[in-house]
Each structure stands twice: as C-alpha cells, then as structure tokens.
Amino acid sequence: MLELIDVLFAFILVALLLLLGRLVKQKVPLFQKLYLPESIIAGFIALILGPGVVGAIARTVGGDETFLATGLFPEATRTVWSQSPGVFINIVFAALFIGETIPHPRDIWRKAAPQVAFGQSLAWGQYVVGLLLALLVLVPLFQVDPIAGALIEIAFEGGHGTAAGMGDTFRELGFEAGPDLALGLATVGIVSGVVSGIILADWGRRKGYVQTVSVEPTDPALYEERHVEDRDTRLARMRLMENLLIDPLSLNFGFVGAAIVIGWLILQVLRFIESVTWGAAGFELIRYVPLFPMALIGGLVVQLVMERLGLAPLIIRRLQERIAGVALDVVVVTALASINLTILGANLGVFLTLSLAGIIWNVWAFLYLGPRLLPTYWFERGIGDLGQSMGVTATGILLIRMVDPDNRTGAFESFAYKQLFFEPIVGGGLFTAAAPPLIRQFGPIPILILTTLLLAFWIGFGLLNYKRIALRSEQQAVEQENTLSR
C-alpha cells in the first residue's frame, strides 16, 4: 500500500533525475546540437536504470531474485511514476490559455487563416497516412490493433504529454501496446523534428527561401515568448492583491485548479448526457475521453471569467508557464521511465513503419503544401508548424527563431494565434482524445473517410484562401501604383 512519503520520494527522484539530465546535456555536445529537453534525457536515464535495462541485465546474470532485478528504483516509486503522466497532463493543458490575451476571433482568423489551414492539413494528413498504413500493412502483416492508425497524430502532433495522457484510454480500449508505442513515437518525432528542421533551415538559406537574416541558435530558453506587462497591469495587480495574504504562485496555481474542476464538471455532464441518450443504445464515446482536453476548455473559461470580472491582472502568464513547465517535465520523465521495452520490442515493425511514415508525410507536406497554402514567408511560417507537428509547440518556436530570430516576418504571431483554432481540436485536443474510441466503435474505414474529407477540406480552403490573399495584394499594389503615378 502506497503512503504519502512514497509519493514524496518518487517526485524527489524526478527532481534529481532532471538535474542529472541537465548535467548530461552539458557534457554531451550531441544533445546540445539536437536541443533535446533535459526532461527527455532524464526520462531515458530513468528508463535505463529501471527494470527494462539494468533490471533485465541483472536478471540475466543472477536470476529473478538477484539485487537490482527490478532496477534501481523501488516498486512504490515505479507505481507512482506509472500513474503520474495521466494526472499531471491535466495541469499542462489547464494552464495553456490562462493569462493569454484572447483577441476577437475575427481579428485572429484574419491573421492566422493560412497558418490554420496548413497546420490542420498536417494533422489530418497524419491520420490519413496512419489509418491507410493500419489497413494496408499493420493489421494484415503485424496483426496490430487498428487504433495504431491514430498513433502518428497522437504522438507526433500531440507530443510526449498527449501520448502519456492517452495511456489510460488505450488500456481501457484493450490496446495494451498503445502507451509504449505512442511514447516511443513521440521521442522519434521530437528528435527527427529538430534534426530535419535544422537540415531544412540550412537548405532553405542556400536556396534563398529564407527571406530574413538569421543567426544560429544558442539556447532554447532564448526562444520563449517574453510576456512584457504594461505598467497599468502591474498597478492593477498591486491593488487587487493589497489585502491578499497569498503567494502569487499559489494564487495562480489555484486558477489552474479551478480550470481542472471546470473541465471535470464539463466531462461529467457530457458523460451523463451520453449515458441517458446514445450511450443507452450501446454507443459510448465520452466515456473514453480523458480529462485533459476538457481542462483546456476550463482554462479558457477561467480566463474569460476573470476578464469579465476585471480580475485578469491577478493572472501572471509567466507563472502559468512555469506551472505548466514543471508539470510537463514530470509527465515526460515519468512517462519515459514507465515505458515497457518488452512491448516496444515486440511491436518493432509497427513502431518503425509508423515512425518513417510520419517523418515522410511531415517533410513532404512542408515542402509541397507550405508554398501553396502560405502566401507570404512560407518557409519561416511553415517551419514552425513542421516542428510542432513532429514534436511540441516549443520545437516549432525553436525552428521559427532559427530562420527568423528578430520576428520580421510575423511568423511567430501567426503561429501563436493558430493555436486557438488548433489545440482544442487536434494536437491533444478533442478529436485527438476521441479518435481511438471512434476507431474502436466504427472501425478504421469510416474514420479514414472522415479524416480524408477533413484533409481535403483544409487543403482546398488553404488553396482558395491563398488565391484570395494574392488577388487582394495585387489589387493593393495596383492602387498604390496608381496613387503614386498621380
């Protein structure tokens, strides 16, 4: 039986592993060149020191009862770690939009429409490629669960956090290999995203596609968005907190907690509605939807309510980022430490096939669809979505800063605004969470048809929007020329 002290020491070990990850990164130049987050390095160290590597070696040498037969970590610690990803991912998503200024949707759409079309095309294409592979190769050749067709989007677009957060859903649906395959694919995605991004950035400069003067990156921390607050916001916060005997960090963590509670209530209402309607007929979908996409919606609700009540200055965006950052580090370390290497090895063919297909689709879409959907600065704007579609949002920001360090193209703003129309749906959003139960309920062919139609819609919309923007630019140029000629 677990005790609270076991939980405490489990997370102390996570903290020590993160420090060790930082030390290893400083000593290994290759990890610095790949911009691998310390959390991923720490997670792999924990995986190596666990029962899958050190434990397997010890059992091979001395038998099941030998010292270190279960690795370096006690069973209580491994139990806490195995449950942590599905819990802490809710904090990550709850804090995603808390403290963010939410402009009018019409203004955001005007700036972000091409980026939305390109990002959505990348995401839905990952479903199409994955489901086609599942139907034509993975199921007949490897007898794998058809849900594997959703793994490219879940792991590549969603990253380690989403892959870990979907673990319970996979297990409830009977896809036992799903959690380990998803985490393995997420690792391939983030590494290949950075590597391919660096190679493409160098190629783009030589070909002249990069239209801004760029510098080589030095530290990923330089690419975090700086939320500079104005004087009025700081003064308003001082007035609001004048009689509050609470630390600002604790207060902002309370907002995250409120977002999670709101998300939980939304999920319970949806499950109740399902139980008395279509669920009574045997069709269950909401039952398998995890909490984290609802926590994201809860964060939006908290932000809007705080703005309406005039209490928004109490929210400090940098603290929200730090809270989410710590939670994401815990998710990544504990998820990687809990990978079952036996299951991953037994599904090596599936793993390699999905990895290669995901990389090829994303790079092809960037090189072919990018110039046709993004009317201005296609390379700078597209490479951010390439990075996000193969790793995490931070990878996309990193690649944008590599080719546009001074943000002269406006790529970062378009990329940021796109998230409001993107994250709630794919990349860890509602459809990402719903895809596995949808595949189980209806089979892969209907979901393949649905995602193909959505892919065709977004590509078609992107092409038409490209022509509209190009035509408007031409008309403005003509009008400007006529004005000058007068």
> What gap, in angstroms, lies between the N and C termini?
85 Å
Total beta strand runs = 0
Rg calculated over all Cα atoms:
23 Å
Helix content: over 70%
Walk me through the structure.
- This protein has 486 residues and is an all-alpha fold.
- It has helices spanning 4-27, 29-33, 38-49, 54-62, 75-94, 105-142, 151-157, 159-165, 167-172, 178-207, 231-240, 248-276, 292-308, 317-337, 341-346, 348-368, 370-373, 378-390, 393-403, 411-422, 430-442, 444-485.
- The model is unreliable at 213-226 (pLDDT under 50).
Topology:
Layout: H1 4-27, H2 29-33, H3 38-49, H4 54-62, H5 75-94, H6 105-142, H7 151-157, H8 159-165, H9 167-172, H10 178-207, H11 231-240, H12 248-276, H13 292-308, H14 317-337, H15 341-346, H16 348-368, H17 370-373, H18 378-390, H19 393-403, H20 411-422, H21 430-442, H22 444-485
Helix pairs in contact: 1-3, 1-5, 1-14, 3-14, 5-8, 5-13, 5-14, 6-7, 6-16, 6-18, 6-20, 6-22, 7-8, 7-10, 7-16, 8-10, 8-14, 10-16, 10-18, 10-19, 12-13, 16-18, 18-19, 18-20, 21-22
